[in-house]
Amino acid sequence: MTFTRSLLLLLALGSCHAQEQTPAAPPAPPAAIRLQNHPFLDDTQLPAWSKMTPEQAQIDCTIALQRHAAIIQAIENAAEPTYENTFGLYTGNHELFQAWLRWLILVKLHDTPETRTATEKLEPLYLQASSAAFHSEKLWNTLKKVAGSDEVRTLSPARQRLIAETVNLFREEGADLPPEKKTRLAAIDQELSRLSRCFTANIIDSTKTFELSIGEENAPEATQQPTPHTGTPRRILNYGNARPTLAVTKDEQLRKTIWQALQTIATGTYDNEPLIKQILTLRRERAQLLGYPTYADMVAARTMLGTGAAAKRHICGMIDKLRSQYAAETETLRRLKADETNNPDARLEPWDQAYYIARHYEKQSKISYWALASHFPADNVLQGMFGIYSQLYGISVIECPAKAAKPGRKQTVLPGTVEVWNRHVRFFEIHDQATGKLLGSLYIDAGNRPDKRPGIWTQEIRLGSSRTPGIVCISLAHEWDDDLDHASIEQLFHEFGHALHRILYDGEETDLGCISIARDFNEFPSIINELWTWDRDILQRLCQGPLPDDAYEQILANRNLFRIGNEIFQYKMALLDLELHSRHIDDATPLDDLVKTIMEQNNVPHAELDLANLRENMHLFSNSAYAGLYFVYLWDKMLAEDAFSRFREKGLTNPETGAEFRRTILSKGNSKPAIELYRNFMGRAPKPDVLLQTLGIQPTTPHTQSAHQEP
Q1: CA angle, 241 as apex, 238 and 243 as ends, to 5°?
Q2: Which residues form the signal peptide (predicted)?
Q3: Residues 614-633: pLDDT tens digits?
Q4: CA 387 from chain center: how many Å?
Q5: Beta-strand relationship, 457-462 and 438-445
Q6: Mind listing the domains of the chain with CATH numbers?
Q7: Predicted model pTM
Q8: Residues 494, 529: contact at Cβ < 8 Å?
Q9: Which has the closest alpha carbon to 433: 397, 382, 379?
Q10: What is the pLDDT of residues 555-610, one digit of tens each?
Q11: Quick one: which of 25, 334, 509, 660 has the fewest CB in 10 Å?
């Protein structure tokens, strides 16, 4: 039975303490139910999506919760505690975990009033079960007794690691706190769970209802719709096309109108500002209950940097290194605006950036944006990507016939056909080339839908191990018949990196897979995947027909087009995240004023130009996975650039290097500390030199990784 921090992050939940209750009676034995009638519990086959309804989720989760209670009771009452009847029992049964994973993926892919209502009913039950485990003195004392016993020294390294990680998890969830602090921690976690759920719902509802009617001029043809009753053409912007319209709208006042309208997402009826302030305040209090000065320090404690202050020094140091280049890029855009508006004193505004970057591109580029994308149909890119990593890692990716079967609708699915939840979903099996073994399965859901969680993301459906093939879902924004620009190609490679990291894990202990990996290592295997997409030979494998020389040259030129601005935006967001999670939040200070104050205090250049709307930042506030940890994207980018140098040296599709990466990184999950896994592949600690050189910064002194702190 696993209750890892990662599951809580995925669910936007924390543990919630409740008063000790009499354990539920042991549930009926497994033979008393037919698994095929319980799709959230049936882990013997692929999910039966047509049976996965909110009503069935409540039935199945109730069964799983009863069985969980029986397992906790059995551990607490063990007469002679051993690994097998304590840690082995606790981590060896994943029924409740898997039920929640399936429910979570259904909610993300099929958001309806019914799924929201069911979540409101089920979430407190899950939290209560989590609380009963983390805050049971009897269970905690039993686990500590086994963890300190002589038996541990006789166990395998994997089991010793599993014990250590489980003990750390319990402590992080407040197992050592006195009763009154456990009670407060429980109240905080329950409220954080509710606030995060409300935050996400506000974004979804706000973007669904976003609509801006604008003039006939200077807008993409795709936005043209007939006016009701009259049929007169007008331009309608929705959330999906409003932001791209900024890049093609010549009229500055119209750009300003569109930009200002976008700032209203998650405001008014769906206002997230008070939720953000409450979330930040409660996270700070939670950290202090657990003995940390700030939330940023708490979440950074088990990263390579060790503290929030060390993370801030790293981020600010990079901003300083990029400052002069960023100023030059910004001045280039400002001068372009000055020239085109005949105003030498023109000021670059937030609504100007996308437009003048596009104008600069038009002036400098020989090939249009759409002409470049036409070389890369989505299916060509997908099949080419599969071929590249099949060659590198010794795998085979096989597509299987699929049939859409919406939840709650009876549908006949022929034998040999896989159920999927929407006609835009494709299904693949991943096998080991040498043995033919099924390693895992992959659903890819393309395109946006009103009931689908926005964004590009990857999530487990079933956790994998050496015994059980994992199941993963990738959600993409583009359609299958689209041509892909380079950014979309990078995104696909990135998400496939996440999928491979989960599917190629081959450890025996499921709980040591990627679901529990260190946050500052989680993005490394996905970010390194992006780097393949800049190589000529790799792009040719993704291309429809020969890739012209001028097209490839244009792709490389585009990579450096205002590249520092894109980089420094990420560093600014990381700094803002750290600061927000390191200070007291005053309810009376408007959120936008707080952001300005933080940027001014840190002397951040041109902060007003490119800070995203925090009210729709799901990374930071829909769950706590990256809260206080946004810097890990940048840290993992440094790791990726450094490690990719080994592939460059040996050949980007060299199977020996790929096999070593699979063996030392992708297959290991959280079986060892992240820094040890990295050293096993590179033969040394990470260095920032390659990243600095890529950004046009020459290291002034030889670098070694001195900021690392063992978790």
Answers
A1: 105
A2: 1-18
A3: 999 988 998 778 899 999 99
A4: 25
A5: unpaired
A6: 18-134+136-172 (1.10.1370.40), 211-263 (no CATH), 373-559 (1.10.1370.40)
A7: 0.88
A8: yes
A9: 397
A10: 999 998 889 998 999 999 999 999 999 999 988 999 989 998 999 999 888 766 66
A11: 25
